[in-house]
Specification:
Blueprint: H1 3-6, H2 15-40, E1 45-49, E2 60-66, E3 70-74, E4 80-84, H3 94-105, E5 110-116, H4 124-133, E6 138-142, E7 148-153, E8 156-157
Amino acid sequence: MSASRAHGGDHFDLLPFIAILMCTLGCLLFVTLSVAALSLGPSRGHGWIFVNNEEGFKKKPRLVEWDGTSVVVHRADGSTGSAAYDSSSSTLSGDFKTFMDWMYDHRKTDYAVIAVRPSGFGTLGALLNEFKNRNIDYGYEPVEDQNRIVLLQGDKPQ
């Protein structure tokens, strides 16, 4: 008589069940890591939501990205334009000059939100002076180099 039959009969082996459970956990871990990798990958970005406050500040934000040498402006129609900006000579050119002229004309209804990349903090003062000299309201926020920025109105891109 075998040892297993002498101690109470047949036994149930849990090894196949544990193997299936481990495969299932491995698949779930793979899916979780894939989703995390996609959210941290090249398509990662920030969505900024601006809401009007109760004190009557009803201006619309207009996004500007600054990296220290060039300015990327996000127009109201959703298109973008970029221009080089020399902070030492304060020379406006191309899309940035057009944007600043437009902002000056719309300074009562719009304000600039400047996304500052790490390389742009050294020369940010000169860029901010361009807005101050034209009496254009602005705000700025630091942003990582690889992050894409989108202004959202509610849950929709502006």
